[in-house]
């Protein structure tokens, strides 16, 4: 568990979150500051600071399986976007790997 990591605290049940899905390696919960009508974060239960520190590539199977489950549950009718911010320039603010799943509004490209 990462010290003072907000997502480790959620995984440990020490902080509240609106969990939408869980499998053996991942947890999915609503973003506290949603940037779209539906905004869910999919995180590994293990503390991994960013996408650069994934040592076991099979973790992505669990993460993407969780993404599929969440997509099925929130039923986006007209598409969705997955985002993984890595590092300062990308705007990563929580140093625990997470995939953003955003849907429910049209989105621009390129991202800001
Ligand atoms: P990033 O900027 O990619 O690191 O995204 C971090 C995301 O975590 C932001 O969208 C925050 O709103 C979200 N977030 C931070 N703390 C919490 C929390 N306790 N519960 C749910 N989402 C959170
Ligand atoms: Zn953590």
List keywords for this structure.
single chain; 112 residues; alpha+beta; HIT family, subunit A; 5-stranded antiparallel sheet; 2 helices; 5 strands; 20% helix; 22% strand; globular; binds adenosine monophosphate; binds zinc ion; Histidine_triad_CS; Histidine triad nucleotide-binding protein; HIT-like; Histidine_triad_HIT
CATH-defined superfamily: HIT-like
Order of helices and strands: HEEEHEE
Q: Strand pairing plus helix content: what structural class?
A: alpha+beta
Which bin fits the share of residues in helices?
A: 10-25%
Q: Which overall shape is indicated by the principal axes computed on the Cα atoms?
A: globular
| DSSP, total strands | 5
Mean pLDDT: 96
Task: Characterise this structure.
The chain is α+β, with helices and mostly antiparallel strands and 112 residues long. Helices cover 20% and strands 22% of the residues. The chain is built from two helices and five strands. It has a five-stranded antiparallel β-sheet, with helices on one face. A hairpin with a 7-residue loop joins strand 2 and strand 3. The chain is globular, with a radius of gyration of 13 Å. It starts with 5 loop residues before the first helix and ends in a 9-residue tail after the last strand. The model has no long low-confidence stretch (mean pLDDT 96). It binds adenosine monophosphate and zinc ion. Residues 2, 5, 7-8, 47, 96 line the site of zinc ion. Zinc ion (ZN) is lined by residues 2, 5, 7-8, 47, 96.
């Amino acid at each position: 568990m990462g010290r003072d990591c907000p997502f480790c605290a959620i995984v440990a049940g020490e902080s509240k979150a609106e969990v939408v899905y869980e499998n053996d390696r991942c947890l999915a919960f609503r973003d506290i500051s949603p940037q779209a009508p539906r905004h869910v974060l999919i995180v590994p239960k293990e503390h991994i600071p960013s996408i650069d520190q994934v040592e076991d590539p099979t973790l992505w199977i669990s993460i993407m399986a969780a993404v599929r489950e969440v997509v099925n549950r929130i039923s986006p009718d007209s598409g969705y976007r997955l985002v993984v911010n890595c590092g300062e320039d990308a705007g990563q603010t929580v140093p625990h790997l997470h995939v953003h799943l955003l849907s429910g509004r049209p989105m621009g490209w390129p991202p800001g």
